[in-house]
Amino acid sequence: MTGLGTLASTAKRRVGWIIRDRFPFRPVVRHVQGVELVLPWSHRLPDYAVWQPTYGQNLVELGRLLATTGPLTVLDIGANVGDSAVQILNAADGRVLCIEADKAYLDFLHRNVDRDPRVTVVEALLTVDGGDGGTTAVRSGGTTRFVEGAAGDAMPTVSPTSLRTDHPAFDRLRLVKSDTDGYDVELVPAVAEAWRDVHPVLFFEYDPYLTRLADRDPEAVWPRLADLGYEHVAVWDNGGFTVGRTTTDRIAQQGRVLDEVPGGRARSRIYWDVAVVHRDDADGLKAISELVPDELA
């Protein structure tokens, strides 16, 4: 009965997605993980929150803990509809700089954060050098991946250095969240370099499959961060459950398990959430050690 119940639940969910995907940007109001959000009807966040209540809460808890040791300033790269910003500020006082390039989600982002003076929105695509190139937004289930294309439907680009210069309120950046479907391994080190004197905690999706799809080397991120002084790494699975703590010199080898997906990668999206802490950041290390107490085998 358990197997039949699971199959029925999966079938019902997929039918629901098919219906919702026919009207993907119909606005709906949803109460998700303690906050109220205006979402596109097709957005998967409410579903993920029901199946895995821990989903996304690692970032929220990390922000809450960092806020207990000093001012919380957050850079939210790939802010989407603003769900991370809203949830972080519901858990702790601070300021969030949201950067989003997908015009389809910007309307929802503004609906969710514009009434909060603690949030600043930048309508741009973050790139390493701020260079302008043709990009096309590929959307699926509430997330966006930008690929090269002749016709660009993204916003103008901005570099991490320009972002810091243009927004002095975030000069003492404490936490970086990046969710850019494969480009995180390129953008996160560039942001860490731009703010290298304050070494913020870096939280991002480590997804080797999407990274290779973006024509990037997933393992290249670790020596780059190590060169900038980042040493400690906390790891969660894609449902927000703890995996363990490790270091930047060991995680490339340990992360190869993500390529070992039974039945093929197309059947299951497997990735890690990681929080990376500078070797001189005692408060950051204390925070991730509290959230992820065990070592990664």
Automatic annotation (TrEMBL):
<dbReference type="GO" id="GO:0032259">
    <property type="term" value="P:methylation"/>
</dbReference>
<dbReference type="InterPro" id="IPR006342">
    <property type="entry name" value="FkbM_mtfrase"/>
</dbReference>
<dbReference type="InterPro" id="IPR029063">
    <property type="entry name" value="SAM-dependent_MTases_sf"/>
</dbReference>
<protein>
    <submittedName>
        <fullName>FkbM family methyltransferase</fullName>
    </submittedName>
</protein>
<keyword id="KW-0489">Methyltransferase</keyword>
<dbReference type="GO" id="GO:0008168">
    <property type="term" value="F:methyltransferase activity"/>
</dbReference>
<keyword id="KW-0808">Transferase</keyword>
